[in-house]
Amino acid sequence: MMIGIDILEVQRVKSFLDNTKFLKNIFFQSEIDYFLKFNDPCERIAGFFCAKEAVKKALCCENNISFLDIEILHKDSGQPYVILHNNAEFIFKKNNYKNIEISISHTKTLATAICKIDN
C-alpha cells in the first residue's frame, strides 16, 4: 500500500482565482466548473490541489506527473474519486496497482487530502 498526504493554507489559493491560465495548468475544466458552483471556491480549490499532490506522492513520482494527469471528480454521493491520465495512468499500471482512493477535507483556513493506493 502507498500513501500520500498534503495540507495547504486556503489563503494561499486566493491569488489563483484571478489567474485563469494558472488554474487551467492545474485543473481540468470539469474541476473548475465544480469550484465555481460555490460562493467561495477557495476551500475546494485548495482541497483539490492537496488531492492532486497526495496522488503524486502516493505514486512516488511527483516530478514525472503533471497536475493534468490527475482528475478529481465526485460520485453522486459526494465522495471524491480519481481518474488518472497520461503518465500517472502509465505509472499506476506499470506498478500493478489495483485501487486508488482519496479523501479531501477543508475548513475556512486549511485544506488537506490523503490518497491510498493498493497493490
What would you note in describing this structure?
With about 120 residues, this protein is an alpha+beta fold. Helix content is about 35%, strand content about 30%. The protein contains four helices and five strands. The strands form two sheets. A three-stranded antiparallel sheet has the order 1-5-4, covered by helices on one side. A two-stranded antiparallel sheet has the order 2-3. The longest helix has 17 residues, at about 40-60. The N and C termini lie close together (about 5 Å).
Strand order of the largest sheet: 1-5-4
Give the radius of gyration. Answer: 14 Å
Say what the CATH topology is: Ribosomal Protein L22, Chain A
Instruction: Name the CATH superfamily classification.
Output: 4'-phosphopantetheinyl transferase domain
Mean of residue pLDDT values? 93
Domains (count):
1
Percent strand = 25-35%
Do you know the CATH architecture?
A: Alpha-Beta Complex
Main β-sheet, in a few words? 3 strands, antiparallel
Beta strand count: 5
Sequence stretches where pLDDT stays below 50 over 5 or more residues: none
Order of helices and strands: EHHHEEHEE
**Shape category:** globular
End-to-end separation: 6 Å
Percent of residues in helices comes to 25-40%
